[in-house]
Amino acid sequence: MKRIQRLLLGALGGVFLQVSASAQSGPTVVLTFDDATLSQRTVVAPLLQRYGFGATFFVCEFPGFENKTQYMTWEQIRQLSDMGFEIGNHTRSHGAMSQQTPAQITEEIVYIEERCRQAGIPRPVTFAYPSYNYSAEGIAILQERGYRYARHGGDKPYVAGTDPWMVPSYAIHEKDNRTLDFLRLILDTMSARDTVVLCFHGVPDLAHDWVTTTPRHFKAMMKYLRRRDCRVIALRDL
Ligand SMILES: [Zn+2]
């Protein structure tokens, strides 16, 4: 009996190795998209799906959220979730966390959790600080509520095992030519054990042109990630 078990385990191990060997061997890249812009549903999601890439969409009800030529509906956000993407919490109104009381921070976070529940979206387990602004009180609230990671800015890679409440990211947008050449430089200079987290907004972003990325440049970047054989995942899958 022991021998059969060993043989079975050996065979399973062989299968596992084969699967691992065929998985992506390039750098790990986390894609994140902020502010629930409409183009994330219409342009970004179909392209990512074609490549089999994971991603996190950090949603909020930004001032102007009722303008549905610029922002997604909750139905469209649910569609992203149904497509297998992660929906993360970016607070209700995108205010500066360091200016808010613990009660206000909680209200901002719980509002998005409740909207997700109503829409049939899993409760968020990752968070992005609006405008990269945070506070110790806010981090304590996220911890209490069962969050696992919070994304910050900082333009540097995430080193595994370091502070999950300060996951750094690179802002990607047209301004300052933060497009394909910038991405290439990031991947060429990162160390093999690091993870790169990219922070996009709309593709294009019709509400905030200073963080926009054109569909043409976005497509070129996604194609490049595929060519580099990157493992492209959501933040929850870190
Ligand atoms: Zn934002």
What does this protein look like?
39% of the residues lie in helices and 17% in strands. By secondary structure, the chain is an alpha/beta fold. The protein has a single domain (28-237), classed as Alpha-Beta Barrel (TIM Barrel). Strands 1, 2, 3, 4, 5, 6, 7, 8 and 9 form a nine-stranded mixed beta sheet that branches. The radius of gyration is 19 Å and the shape is globular. It starts with a helix and ends in a 5-residue tail after the last strand. The model is unreliable at 7-22 (pLDDT under 50). Zinc ion is lined by residues 34-35, 90, 94, 130.
Give a quick summary of the entry.
This protein has about 240 residues and is of the alpha/beta class. Helix content is about 40%, strand content about 15%. The protein contains seven helices and nine strands.
**CATH architecture field:** Alpha-Beta Barrel
Mean pLDDT: 92
Bound molecules: zinc ion
Question: How many separate domains?
Answer: 1
Shape: globular
Number of strands: 9
Largest sheet: 9 strands, mixed
CATH superfamily, please? Glycoside hydrolase/deacetylase
Pick out the low-confidence regions.
Answer: 7-22
What is the chain-wise order of helices and strands? HEHEHEHEHEEEHEHE
Helix content: 25-40%
Please report the number of helical segments. Answer: 7
Strand composition percent: 15-25%
What is the rounded Rg?
A: 19 Å
Question: Looking at CATH, which topology would you report?
Answer: TIM Barrel
